[in-house]
Amino acid sequence: MRVLVLASCRWLNAAVEGALLQARALAGAGVETAFAGTPGSPAMIEAVRHGIRCLPLRLEGWSFPMGLSALRGICREFAPDFVCAHRSEDHTAAVLLDPCPVVRVRSDIRRPVAGRAAAWVDGRTSLVVVPSGFMVREGYLSRRRGASEIIPQPVDTARFAPPAGRPEGVVVSAGRLSEVKGHRTLIRAVACLPGVRAVIAGAPAQQSVEDLRSFAAGLGAAERIEFPGRLEDMPAFYSGGTLGVVASLGSEAVSRAAAEMMASGLPVLAAATNGLVDLVADGRTGLLHPPGDWRTLSLQIRYLLDNPGAAAYLSTNAREFCEREISIVAVGGKWLSVLEGLRRGNKATRERVSLTEGTGNPSEG
Q1: Which CATH number do you get for residue 267?
Q2: Long-range contacts of range 54-60, CB-CB < 8 Å, 24 or more positions apart?
Q3: pTM score, two decimals?
Q4: Are 320 and 335 part of one and the same domain?
Q5: Which of 65, 70, 104, 258 is 20 to 30 A (C-alpha) from 7?
Q6: Does 339 lie in the same domain as 278?
């Protein structure tokens, strides 16, 4: 089986990260995989680093018409059995060319657009895959008339693994400094806990580091909240924490931070929102709190710091869940099973059509 994964984008985001992880999962499952993306982009650099065949493709903005021609050449050369598209432009281009069955992988919190054009594209899409049940419950597939599946986005359990030891009283969180990520909820919670420190990693977005430092200072917690900015070595960052927090108020179609923390053996305290409720099993692989409820979050932090046995229970279960359900190996097996089933179904359909066309009506003539 050959699968072409499309993610033509100049920067890394949730969709592109998902495409890279899918390509790695497929390749690990023995599928001949190629990754098509923007030349020189972080995604292409990462794909090369992991030994995945890379094919240059630009489909953004004014590059789309020329990109169609390039994609046609890629499909002729690589001859994929499936094209998996992770962005709307890639999806539209694959459907227009129709080289083979097209799979749309959705990992964006934005809802699918409506309209005749979108319905036309969806009608020519063999399969739509979403990463968690919340997208189904919230109607992301309500206009879908064809096949759909839930396949989680994997986490690299080899890269993110429990360390030999951990510090005490350090809460870590990761995410861009956007209001939707709920960093102020965490700051409020930690401000009530003397002796507890928080380290919040992430690049400025709608908020700056100074905005959040000023907020922490107003609560008397400025000396106990650190903002190291965007970090490259996330495994080392998670190893430096006692607990992990994902306090998002929304977003989180896929929470890479929560999955990475769980794989790293961090007890995770997560907001009960969107995909987090499918990833974190409350009381078993982590603890959930109502979004924005800093009081409950504060109590949960205090409880786990005071009860290391409970923290270890959550940590062990979370790591086992990651290895069993969302590791690159586990998700690669799920993708292989789904695509093999889809290929058998397409083959059966083609055979039925061929048989019908060849039979004719004996009363004719």
Answers
A1: 3.40.50.2000
A2: 55/4, 57/6, 57/8, 58/8, 59/6, 59/8, 59/87, 59/89, 59/90, 59/93, 60/8, 60/9, 60/10, 60/89
A3: 0.90
A4: no
A5: 258
A6: no
Whether 159 is covered by a domain: the verdict is: no
The dihedral of CA 302, 308, 313, 315: what is its sign?
Answer: positive
- Residues 6 or more apart from 344 whose CB is under 8 A from it? none
For every one of its 365 residues, what pLDDT tens digit does the chain have, with 9 covering 90 and above?
Answer: 999 999 988 887 888 899 999 999 999 999 999 999 999 999 999 999 999 999 999 988 888 989 999 999 999 999 999 999 999 999 999 999 999 999 999 988 888 888 999 999 999 999 999 999 999 999 999 999 899 999 999 999 999 999 999 999 999 999 999 999 999 999 999 999 999 999 999 999 999 999 999 999 999 999 999 999 999 999 999 999 999 999 999 888 899 999 999 999 999 999 999 999 999 999 999 999 999 999 999 999 999 999 999 999 999 999 999 999 999 999 999 999 999 999 988 654 444 334 434 434 333 33
For residue 294, being part of any structural domain is answered with: yes
Examine the domain organization and report whether 256 and 317 are in the same domain: yes
- Nearest-angstrom CA–CA distance, 91 and 168: 47
Confirm if 26 and 336 have CB atoms less than 8 A apart. Answer: yes
Q: Are residues 104 and 145 in the same domain?
A: yes
Are 316 and 186 spatial neighbours (Cβ–Cβ below 8 Å)? no
**Structural domain for 48, as ranges:** 2-154+328-356
